[in-house]
């Protein structure tokens, strides 16, 4: 379903020099597969998710989703692809404060090609247990509830792949498992592949497949750049 | 969810800032709409009256504009008078002799046609109507004239509408019941002075606060509204006007010198006790309204009169056009410029308001981009938000301006004769909204560009 081949990403440094962040020879995720990606902070995991989502353009290599190489697409093409194929759950939820929970979920289906299905938005909120909070704004919801809205929003556009970037990092321990369960269950229900970044081994160990970022990414093994 | 909803939510989120920006824009638009409306009203007021059913106004030498304003619009101070001899130069010998026989007094060379008589064949549409001004009824001008004024003149856009009476009839030169003292009121005069047919009023001399005449005029008719300045005038029989105290000039003596006699000339009384009409040599007219029997004579006649030393002839249409071109239009342009600058400042307000919020919005924009929104989409969201503020401000401003006009409609109609209401709109106002939307697009472009350039990765990581 997802196939990364020789993906490279470098960033120029402010004082000169180049920092290689990603160098991934090969990485695949099958349809409906759920993968936990663990690694140290600042190692480039978020950059990897951004490149898979087409937010950041790679410097080389191929990122194939269902056989379609998005690394070759223009920025607008990647935007369209993201709107139609990728769901994204952020560490900090990133809900829009001026919008209600329902509107935030509907926003997730606004930019894609599919129809703007209000009943699906409601169903997703019901599925994450927020049937009675649909018209609440993020400021009126607890942290755990906000992340549930974010999960519903990520699923709204019927994605093929869900990217979750440390989705429980800001959640209290009591709610962490609920969030993980919700993400995994939603993906299972709709046969969506899941790549979940986490620091927590406790979380990672629940997944059938755990990938260590440092083993996946050759750039992580490179020495620090010299100027 | 569509982009308009997203833009609206964004505007709502910055509630106070959006409201203040909208109000400032509304004030700018309101000012523009008011200026345009007032200009429209002023223009309309003049346009309605410049087609008055006659071609020339003749009066004493001086400013042709003042003569026009005074005679046609009943504005400004009354001009000097013309001797009645001069008025009779527009009639043929028969009429000159008739008037001399009827009213008595002296007339130089009565046994000839008047100097300008050839221009007026009264049987084929020619008109010569005298006007005597100087008195007031309340704040309204009293116009001493002949019944021909209301019988012969027409009004309306095509100058084909006769003056009609809402009540009563036209005044007569003489009848046994009221002798020479009959009057007709303009519709506005009747409404505001609370007077009608059968009532009597005493004009005041010289100005609205002047001394009241002893002679009272009986109201015999009230005009239907015409939308012209004549709605705000009181028409009295000229013969009665002459008989009022202080309106007769001292008679010319036999040795052709005028003596300094008392200012007040006694009115002659007939054997039956009624007043006798004023002799010709004690009469004056303020202005003469002329319509030559053939239009082509107008220019010729005007030149001939202006070449003389005694009087001037002015074309109301020409004078009003000059007034509009030289005074009213430049003022409008200056006012429009000022108000356009006001709108510009308000538009800059939109720019500043949205631009200042961009720092807080970077994350939201990045989130939308992460959800698949294209650069152009987030740009459109900002432009739509700017456009919404402009649209709201524009509509609010227009409503406020026209609300003011609607509230003041009675006063405006009183003072200008132009009927207006909340929905009275000038053509120029149709350009306000596109203008404001264009300004908003320009104002919104800078923050929209910031949105366009937002670095998604960096903003999501921040």
Q: What would you say about this model in short?
A:
The complex is a heterodimer of chains A (227) and B (462). With 227 residues, chain A is of the alpha/beta class. Chain A is 33% helix and 24% strand.
What features would you describe in this structure?
The complex is a heterodimer of chains A (227) and B (462). Chain A is an alpha/beta fold and 227 residues long. Helix content of chain A is 33%, strand content 24%. In chain A, strand 7, helix 6 and strand 8 form a beta-alpha-beta unit. Chain A is globular. In chain B, strand 3 (127-137) and strand 4 form a beta hairpin. In chain B, strands 1, 3, 4, 7, 8, 9, 10, 11, 12, 14 and 15 form an eleven-stranded mixed β-sheet that branches. A two-stranded antiparallel sheet of chain B has the order 2-13. A two-stranded antiparallel sheet of chain B has the order 5-6. Chain B contains 14 helices and 15 strands. The longest helix of chain B has 55 residues, at 316-370. The chains are: A alpha/beta (227), B alpha+beta (462). At the A-B interface, helix 1, helix 2 and helix 3 of A face helix 1, helix 10, helix 11 and helix 14 of B.
Notable characteristics:
heterodimer; A: 227 residues; alpha/beta; 5-stranded parallel β-sheet; globular; B: 462 residues; alpha+beta; 11-stranded mixed β-sheet; 14 helices; 15 strands; elongated
Helix/strand/pairing category of chain B: alpha+beta
How would a crystallographer describe the biggest sheet of chain B? 11 strands, mixed
Structural class of chain A: alpha/beta
Shape of chain B: elongated
Percent helix of chain A, as a range, is 25-40%
User: How would you spell out the order of helices and strands of chain A?
Assistant: EEEHEEHEHHHEHEHEH
Radius of gyration of chain B in whole Å, from Cα? 32 Å
**SS field, number of helical segments of chain A:** 8
- Please give the most extensive interface between any two protein chains, plus how many residues each contributes: A-B, 32 and 26 residues
The portion of residues forming beta strands of chain B comes to: 5-15%
What is the total tally of β strands of chain A? 9
Distance between the termini of chain B: 27 Å
Please, what is the oligomeric state? heterodimer
Radius of gyration of chain A: 18 Å
* Beta-strand content estimate of chain A: 15-25%
The pLDDT mean of chain B sits at 86
Strand order, sheet with most strands of chain A: 6-7-8-3-9
Helix content of chain B: 40-55%
Shape of chain A: globular
Number of strands of chain B: 15
Order of helices and strands of chain B: HHEHEHHEEHEEEEHEEEEHEEHEHHHHH
């Amino acid at each position: 379903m997802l196939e990364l081949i020789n993906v490279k990403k470098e960033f120029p440094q402010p004082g000169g020099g180049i920092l290689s962040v990603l160098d991934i020879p090969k990485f695949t995720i099958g349809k409906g597969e759920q993968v936990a990606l663990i690694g140290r902070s600042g190692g480039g995991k978020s950059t990897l998710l951004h490149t898979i989502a087409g937010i950041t353009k790679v410097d080389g290599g191929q990122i194939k989703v269902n056989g379609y190489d998005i690394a070759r697409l223009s920025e607008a093409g990647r935007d369209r692809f993201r709107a139609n194929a990728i769901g994204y759950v952020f560490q900090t939820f990133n809900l829009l404060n001026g919008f209600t929970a329902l509107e935030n979920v509907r926003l997730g289906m606004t930019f894609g090609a599919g129809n703007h299905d209000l009943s699906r938005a409601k169903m997703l909120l019901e599925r994450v247990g927020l049937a009675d909070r649909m018209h609440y704004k993020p400021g009126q919801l607890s942290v755990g509830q906000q992340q549930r809205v974010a999960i519903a929003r990520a699923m709204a556009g019927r994605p093929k792949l869900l990217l979750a970037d440390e989705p429980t990092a800001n959640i209290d321990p009591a709610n962490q498992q609920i969030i993980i369960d919700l993400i995994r269950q939603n993906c299972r229900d709709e046969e969506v592949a899941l790549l979940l970044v986490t620091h927590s081994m406790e979380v990672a160990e629940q997944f059938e497949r755990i990938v260590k970022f440092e083993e996946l990414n050759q750039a992580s093994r490179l020495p620090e750049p010299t100027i | 969810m569509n982009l308009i909803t997203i833009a609206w939510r964004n505007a709502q989120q910055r509630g106070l800032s959006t409201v203040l920006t909208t109000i400032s824009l509304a004030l700018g638009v309101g000012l523009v709409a008011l200026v345009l409306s007032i200009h429209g009203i002023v223009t309309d007021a003049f346009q309605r009256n410049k087609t008055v059913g006659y071609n020339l106004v003749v009066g004493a030498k001086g400013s042709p504009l003042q003569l026009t304003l005074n005679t046609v619009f009943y504005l400004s101070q009354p001009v000097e008078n013309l001797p009645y001899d001069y008025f009779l130069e527009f009639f043929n010998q028969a009429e000159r002799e008739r008037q001399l026989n009827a009213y008595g007094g002296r007339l130089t060379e009565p046994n000839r046609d008047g100097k300008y008589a050839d221009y007026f064949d009264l049987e084929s549409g020619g008109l010569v109507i005298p006007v005597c001004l100087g008195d007031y009824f309340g704040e309204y001008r009293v116009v001493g004239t002949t019944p021909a004024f209301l019988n012969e003149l027409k009004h309306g856009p095509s100058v084909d509408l006769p003056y009609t009476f809402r009540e009563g009839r036209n005044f007569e030169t003489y009848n046994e019941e009221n002798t020479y003292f009959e009057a007709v009121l303009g519709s506005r005069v009747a409404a505001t002075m609370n007077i009608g047919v059968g009532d009597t009023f005493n004009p005041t001399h010289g100005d609205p606060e002047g001394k009241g005449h002893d002679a009272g005029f009986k109201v015999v008719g009230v005009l239907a509204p015409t939308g012209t300045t004549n709605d705000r005038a009181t028409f009295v029989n000229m013969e009665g006007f002459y008989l009022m105290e202080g309106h007769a000039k001292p008679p010319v003596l036999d040795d052709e010198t005028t003596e300094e006699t008392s200012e007040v000339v006694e009115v002659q009384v007939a054997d039956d006790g009624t007043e006798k009409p004023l002799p010709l040599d004690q009469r004056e007219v303020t202005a003469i309204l002329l319509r030559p029997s053939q239009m082509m004579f107008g220019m010729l006649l005007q030149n001939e009169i202006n070449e003389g030393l005694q009087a001037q002839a002015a074309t109301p249409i020409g004078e009003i056009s000059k007034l509009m071109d030289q005074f009213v239009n430049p003022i409008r342009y200056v006012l429009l410029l000022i108000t356009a600058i006001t709108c510009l400042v308000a538009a800059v307000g939109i720019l500043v308001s949205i631009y200042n919020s961009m720092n807080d919005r970077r994350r939201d924009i990045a989130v939308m981009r992460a959800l698949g929104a294209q650069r152009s989409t987030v740009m459109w969201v900002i432009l739509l938000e700017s456009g919404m503020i402009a649209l709201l401000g524009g509509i609010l401003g227009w409503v406020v301006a026209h609300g003011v006009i609607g509230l003041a409609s009675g006063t405006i109609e009183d003072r200008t004769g132009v009927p207006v209401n909340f929905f009275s709109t000038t053509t120029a106002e149709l350009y306000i909204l596109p203008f404001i939307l264009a300004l908003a697009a320009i104002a919104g472009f800078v923050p929209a560009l910031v949105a366009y350039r937002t670095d998604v990765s960096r903003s999501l990581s921040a």
